From TrEMBL, chains A, B, C, D:
Start-end of DNA-binding region: 36-55
A family per Pfam: TetR_N
Protein's recorded name: TetR/AcrR family transcriptional regulator
Domain HTH tetR-type per the UniProt entry, residue ranges: 13-73
UniProt superkingdom: Bacteria
Organism the protein comes from: Streptomyces marokkonensis
Record's keyword terms, sorted: DNA-binding, Transcription, Transcription regulation
DNA sequence: ATCTAAACGAGACGGTACGTCACGTCTTTTG
DNA sequence: CAAAAGACGTGACGTACCGTCTCGTTTAGAT
C-alpha cells in the first residue's frame, strides 16, 4: 500500500499530464489511426523513452487517455448514480440518458471510438481494456438492474446482462455507423421498449418465456 | 446490365479471388492490426501494385473480405429471411438467432471485429463501410419490424431503429469485450425482453409513452 | 539491298519518328535520369510493346535519338570535312570549331551528356555505343591527323590517338563539369597548343622524345 | 575548429564506414546502374533511414564513395605533388602519369565512371559534384601550370585551363569508350605533344598565336 | 555539500510497411 | 498480324513509425 521510495530522480507528474493532454488532442484531431507515439511525444515536448517508460504501448496510452477524459469531464457518468433514494428504473434512466447524450459530444464520441478501435484491432489488448475500462461500468448497470428485480420493478426471469449489452451496444453501434447525434432520442425510445419488456408479468399479459 | 469492355488486358478474376482468400487468412491468423498490404500481397503471390489497382486501401480490402466471407459462408444470414409465410416475430427471431450464433464462430467473429476496427479507426472510412456493408442489413431489420407493426404484432409507437441498434449492438459489444460464445443464449433472452416490450398495449397494461 | 516483304501489317514509319521525337523532348526536358520508357511511350501516344519492338532498351533508344538529333541538325558536323582542298591543319581546325561550338548549344549538349551517361552507367552498353556512335568520328579525326603527318604538316612521331582523345575529351570534360559555353574559346586555345606541339621538329628546336 | 556537440545520440562512425565500404563493393560488382540504396543498405547491414540520414541521394553517396576510395588508396594522387624542388614540368608529368595509370586499375576506373555517370545523368547534381570532388584537383593542375609559366618553363600566352581540360578529358574519354588500359602509354605521348606545344617561343620557331 | 541513480530531451539505430513509379513481359480487343 | 491499352510480378523509391539504444544534462533524495 505504501509507495516505495526508489532512489534517483522521481518521475515528474507534470510530464504525465502533458502526455495525456497531448494524446487526447491528437486523438481528437487525427483519430485513433492517426495517433502515433512519435506524434504524441513531439506534441508533449517529451522524448520517446519517457513515453514508453510510462505506457508500454499505444493501446495502454489510449486506454488511460479515455479513462481520464471520461472521468474528468463527466464525473457522474460511467456508472449508475448513487442517487440512493431513486428506484432502479429511475437510476437506469438517468444513467442511460447521460451516457447517450455523451455520445452526442464529439469529444466523448472520439474516446469511445478510440477504445473500440483498440479493442477490435487486437483481441489480446481487448481483454485488458475490458477489465480496466468497461467492466466496472457494465457491472454497475447489471447491479442496478438486479436491485430493480429485487425491488419488484423488473421481471425476475429477465437476462440482465443481455439488457446491459443492448443498452451499451446500441450506443456503440450508432457511433460506429452514423454519428452519436441521434443517440439521446434513440435512448428514450429504447428505454421505453426495454422497460416495458422488463415489467413484471401480470395474469392478463403473460411474458414470453425464455427457452433455456 | 451489360459489362463494358474496356480496352487492354482485362483483370484476372482468379487474382481477385487469390487476394481475398489471402487477406481472409491473414485476418484470421493475425487480426486486423496484423494485416498489412505487404503481407497480403505476398501471401496471394501478387505484386503490391496489383493489389492497389483493385483496392485503394486496407479498409476497402477488409470491407470486401468481410462481405465475401459473410455471404459465401452463410448465404441466408445478413438479412431477415424471405420465408414469406412467417410472421414478423418469427422472421426476426430466425434472423437474430442466426446472427448471434455466427458471432460464436471465430471465423465470423473475426470478420465483424475487423469491420469494427476499420470503422472505429477512421470515421471517414466508417461512412462508406456503413453504406456498403452494414446498412442493407440494418434496413432489412427495420423493414421486418415495420411489417410487424403493420400486421399488428408490434406496437405502432415503438422506435424501430432503436430496436435494430440494440439487436446488432448487443452482439457487437459482446464480441468486443468478451467472446461471442455466449451470444446465442443472450440472444434468446434479449429477444424475450424486446418482443415483450414491443407487444401492443392493451387497456389494462398501458405502455410507457416516449417523451418526444 | 532488297527490302524483304514480311507478311502481316508493316510497321508504321511515322511511329518511329513520333517515338524519336518524344524521346528527344523528354531528354531535353528531364535529362537522361528522367527518361523512362513509360514516359516516352505515353508522350509518343504509343504502347510500351510497340516501343520495345523497335528498341530493346533505354540505352538503344537514347543512342538512336542522339544519332538522329546530331545528324539532322548539323549535317556537316561529326567528322572532319570533305573540303578536299584544305590541308589537314585546316580540316582539323574547322571540325573542332564546329564540334566545340555545338557543345555550346544546350540541345546538343544534352545529347552528348545522354550518351555519356549511358556509357558510364554500364560498361557493357558502352562498348556498343562506342562502336556505333563515337568510333566513326574518332577514326575520321585520326585519319585527318595521319594525312597531316603524310603531308608533313605534323610530326611523324606523334601519338595521333592521344591527340584525338584530348580533343574530344576536352569538350566532354567541360560539359560534365561546367557548361559547354566556354568550349568554343577553349577550343581555339587548345588547338593553338596542340598544333604547336605537333609541328615538325627543326634542328634548333628538338621535340621531346616519347619514352616507348 | 571545435566539433559542436549536438544533443541526442551521436552517429556511429563505424556505420558510415560500413556503408561506404558496402557501396564501394556494390559499385565495383554491379556498376553505377546496379547500385540501389536498398542494395547498399542490405549489404551494409543497415536500415534505409540510416542511409538517407547521412546521404540524401544516390548521387551524394556515390560522390563520397569515390572521394574516399581515391584518397584512401592513392593518397598522393589527385593533385600535383608537393615535391617542392621539382619544376612544373616534372610535377605535371609525375601527376599525370599517376592519374593515367590509376585509370588502368579497374577499381579506380569504376570510381571515375561512377562519378561521370552521376554527373552526366543530372546536370543539377553535376554542379555540386564538380564543386566538391573535381574542382580542387582541376585547380591544382592549373596552379601547377601557372607556376610553370612564372618560372619560364611554359609559354605565357597559353590557355592553361584548356590544357587541364585536355589532360583530364583525355583519360575520361578513354575510359568511357574503351578501357583505361592504354592510358599510361597514351599519357606519355600526350604529354610529349602538349609540353612541346607549351614550350616558350624562340625567334626561329614562333608559336601560332591564338585568335582571341 | 557532495554523491548517486534515475528521469529527461534528443535523436541514432535496425526494422517493417507504406503507397508510388518504372521495369519488361503478357494478354486482350481493335483495325 | 501489328498496334493500343493495360494487367502483371518484380523491385526500388523515399517516408513514417516502430520500440530500443545511447548520449549528455538535470534533479531530487541519501550520505
Amino acid at each position: 500500500m505504501d509507495e516505495v521510495r526508489r532512489p534517483g530522480r522521481p518521475r515528474d507528474a507534470a510530464t504525465d499530464r502533458a502526455i495525456l493532454r497531448a494524446a487526447r488532442d491528437v486523438l481528437l484531431r487525427d483519430g485513433y489511426a492517426g495517433l502515433s507515439m512519435e506524434k504524441v511525444a513531439a506534441a508533449a515536448g517529451v522524448g520517446k523513452p519517457t513515453l514508453y517508460r510510462r505506457w508500454s504501448s499505444r493501446v495502454a496510452l489510449v486506454g488511460d487517455v479515455v479513462w481520464h477524459s471520461f472521468h474528468a469531464a463527466v464525473p457522474g457518468i460511467g456508472r449508475p448514480g448513487p442517487q440512493a433514494g431513486d428506484g432502479a428504473t429511475q437510476q437506469l434512466t438517468t444513467w442511460f440518458r447521460a451516457y447517450a447524450s455523451s455520445a452526442g459530444d464529439p469529444r466523448h464520441a472520439a474516446m469511445i471510438l478510440a477504445l473500440t478501435a483498440a479493442a477490435a484491432e487486437s483481441p489480446h489488448d481487448a481483454e485488458s481494456l475490458y477489465r480496466h475500462h468497461t467492466r466496472p461500468q457494465y457491472e454497475a448497470i447489471v447491479d442496478c438492474l438486479r436491485s430493480g428485480v429485487e425491488s419488484g420493478e423488473f421481471r425476475a426471469d429477465a437476462d440482465l446482462e443481455a439488457v446491459a449489452d443492448a443498452l451499451i451496444g446500441s450506443v456503440l453501434y450508432q457511433l460506429l455507423t452514423r454519428t452519436g447525434d441521434a443517440a439521446p432520442q434513440r435512448a428514450e425510445h429504447l428505454l421505453d421498449v426495454l422497460l416495458a419488456g422488463l415489467r413484471p408479468v401480470t395474469r392478463d399479459q403473460p411474458g414470453r418465456a425464455p427457452r433455456d
